[in-house]
Specification:
Blueprint lengths: L5 E5 L3 H11 L3 E8 L4 E7 L10 E7 L14 E4 L3 H10 L6 E5 L6 E6 L5 E6 L3
Parallel strand pairs: 1-4, 5-8
Antiparallel strand pairs: 2-3, 3-4, 6-7, 7-8
């Protein structure tokens, strides 16, 4: 048996990243812990619609004193099904942000999709299956 647990992203500003995921995208912070011996902090967030302490999460890792990372050319994106891309667009606008692409249609034309960038530059795909 195998169960998906989390995706880890490094952040140069933990508070800024948590603010984005919680206040713009509606995630909830499940737990946060400092590791002084290793000089890092982990924060686990859960997307709206996911639940349970063993449900899928986003792990944000802040290595103390590291303000930014080179994302490289290998990273693609994480994707989330959303109830309304239009509502996400309103939350982005309220926060002074925009979609980095879209909204538009998926390649098969059956769903609405858009991309946003988190504060560290990670790509997030949003898919609205009801559009």
């Amino acid at each position: 048996m195998m169960k998906y647990l989390h995706t880890m992203l490094r952040t140069g500003d933990l508070d800024r990243a948590i603010d984005f995921y919680v206040n713009v995208l509606g995630f909830r912070e499940v737990r946060r812990k400092d590791y002084p011996d290793g000089k890092f902090t982990l924060a686990f967030l859960q997307a709206p619609g996911d639940s349970g302490d063993d449900g899928p999460m986003l792990e944000l890792t802040y290595n103390w004193g590291v303000d930014e990372y080179d994302l490289g050319s290998g990273y693609g994106h994480v994707a989330y099904r959303v109830e309304s891309i239009d509502e996400i667009g309103k939350a982005l606008e309220k926060a002074g942000l925009n979609f980095s692409w879209g909204p538009g249609r998926t390649p098969d034309g059956r769903k609405k999709m858009a991309f946003i960038d988190d504060p560290d530059g990670y790509k997030i795909e949003l898919i609205d299956p009801l559009a």
